[in-house]
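thread: overnight batch results

M.L. [08:02]
morning all. the overnight job finished for the chain we discussed friday. pasting input first so we're all looking at the same thing
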Amino acid sequence: MKTSSPALKYLLEKDVQVSKHFVVAVSNLSVFKSLRIHSRFLEISCDGIAWFVSWIAFIWLLSSKSLYQMQVNMLFGLVLDVFIVAVLKALVRRRRPVANKDMLTIGPDKFSFPSGHASRAFFVLLFFTKLYPLHVIFWLPLTAWAVSVAISRLILQRHYILDICAGAAIGILEALIIGFLWVSEETAFSIVGFVTEETVDSME
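M.L. [08:03]
and the structure it wrote out:
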């Protein structure tokens, strides 16, 4: 990522410094090894490919009319997330932390800004707490998961702090967009019926 703006250059340099200080501070903790193991699990739990495959399988295998609207809107949100993040990464082209070159990375892209894991995590969080609210008992675990995913990106040195903050903000924006463009139940029935090549009326 190249910039001619002194202010932006200063901000990015500070972002790198603070991010490195965070990683060093965590590295000094006795539970660091455990944190890294958990971070890798969190990385997988919010991987884009894993979400797409599992969600499409969920739609295909669990043919319940009461779930179609939720399933379709979530799928559209996941597609929107991939599109927005991919476009921004292609435009900004900020490189990932150097340490990432020697680590096994999930996903082929080499750009850091914004964090797709953070955007996806916060979109899912708002989806299931605001757009399609699950029981309140699930809100705290969902929040803890989303925040943990974001922090894990720093621990694994996949991103810098600004990447994470931008990703979280994008995830919130995506939830607002999906809420505004919320697919109706009737349209969701039609979409699922078209994809599965079955009529909704015959699906019980």
